[in-house]
Amino acid sequence: MSYLEDSSKNGDPVRPGEQWFFYWKTSAALWESRILQFPPHEVVFIPLYWGFHAESASDWDFGRIQPERDILRLTQLLTHHGRKFCWILPLTPAPFLPNGGVPVTAARVMSINTDGVHLAVLDQELKLNKMYSFFEPKVFQSFASFVKAFGSFLASSKIKAPVWGAQFSYHQDGKNLSFMEDRSLAFEQGFSRYLKKANPNGNDLTETKREAQLKDIFTEEVSALFKTTAEAGLSPFWGGSQSIVVLGAGPKETIERSFDGGKSQLEYTRDLFNHYVNHQWISSALLTQKEKKDSLERILGEHFGSREIAERYNYESYSAELTEEFRPFGVISLFGGRTGEEFQRLGLTSFLDKHFRWLYQRHDELEFTPEWIDVHHDKIKFFHGRDLDRTKFSQILKLFLMGQRILLDLEGLHPDLDKRLQIFLLENNLKMQSVNYLTTTNIVELGEGRFITFEGEKLLSEPQKEKFWQHIFRYLNLVQPELQMDEDVFSLWRIRGTTPHELSYLDVRRVNFYNPTSYKKIVSIKTHKHFAFMRMIDPIKAQAKSTPDGVDVELLPNGKIALDFGHYEEA
């Protein structure tokens, strides 16, 4: 059981969520008792408050002066009690840290977002943490000095736990904004120096769009500088970097959270499911016990618990074959399309939201590793031609040869890659079937593998584009119970292998329903003879009954229920 499921711990500012341990928020004398409260199987994540260790601009204390900074003793306690652990190093301002983590000696200029608002965030104790600009030169100098000192400390102490870099962002107005985004005086001065260095003869910024693009490039380069500095200074221990969206961290949310009513469970749940679909990792470290309750608490515990966290940080991975353990389930992965607008323009996301809601995820990159390929073998994979280079295109062709199903929008595909595709078909003696319906679609079959290309540009102005996707997914023969429910009801599917007494099924699928609203909701599940209703699990303010077509569910306010279905062999 994840500790997120234990409501007695949700109000603990020392262990606020996602198995994080804020060592600086408690006396060193209490560390051991706090550690023992973590279940033995969970990985303990230790976010580094680097400003807390500063004795001066270049002198860092790891326990020599203050016992609360003695992270060697902390690691010895974790090791003594058999706990796995790793470090989280902020690569941007961190909303759960005073000054964003910046030492007092370097905290000179507050961050200002693109709306001109000074960034400040309420933490779990409703204390206001001001965010300071990472574009102030003293901040980088201090960060580089800390990384060097911390790397030396790890080496001399022979601590082998990995260090993960974390880039924090917040969700506002339908998009994620990095805490690195800044328009303060420190940023503007740094941007001016950047322009002079890049263009000694001057730069014409009369176009607002061009200026915005250059500021984005400058921000990305400074972000990369912090990341590469950390990676170089901690190379023997570096585990990689994670992008983390912090719930409740946006400027508008800070204002909402300062009022008695706060932000609603429904709004938090919408944000959480948006992050899930976009394959973004979240942190609930800022949320109070009052905010992290009912539906939100249950979703976090059941779908973002210790098993998923351990997989995210490479401590565990799901096996290629289904086991008797439930795992997340989806039917399609979308790659590329940074803003997601391309999928919307094609009508794909609206189709998926209607027929396969929460059963798809968008990824920025294809993770082409043997483990990932095996676990995600059955998922349909969608790509945009303009996102592909020669390496990625070769990887896609390999996936097809492995028996996977590929959808490729040819818009923007480089002519050289189109030639590569034709050569590939000739070399493997593969025949292409062409279908003209709303757009030109080409289909290649090889065993279980399917390679489908289409001209997405022709769909953009097509009012009947949903019918195109209906035909594509009917051809791909996706079998899934049909859900009829209100848009404010949320569901997530999981899947497992069968047990010896369930051999008449291919697999078992569990769907969890959540109603974070203050109104009663009804859900109807149509099984279409491919699924058999097996049981309901842990209903809270909810009930289910079988019907000739499937199952009907009634969810009262803040109700939840899980249903198991056996998936029959398909004819």
Q: Average pLDDT value?
A: 92
- Specify the number of helices: 15
Note the overall shape: globular
Q: Structural class of the helices, strands and pairings?
A: alpha/beta
Oligomeric state of the chains in view? single chain
Amino-to-carboxy terminus distance: 38 Å
Total number of strands: 22
Q: What is the percentage of strand-forming residues?
A: 25-35%
3D structure, described in words:
By secondary structure, the protein is of the alpha/beta class. It has 15 helices and 22 strands. The strands form four sheets. Strands 9, 17, 18, 19, 20, 21 and 22 form a seven-stranded antiparallel beta sheet that branches. Helix 3 (137-157) runs parallel beside helix 5. It starts with 30 loop residues before the first helix and ends with a strand. Residues 1-9 have low confidence and may be disordered.
Salient structural properties:
seven-stranded mixed β-sheet, 30% helix, 571 residues, 22 strands, seven-stranded antiparallel β-sheet, alpha/beta, disordered N terminus
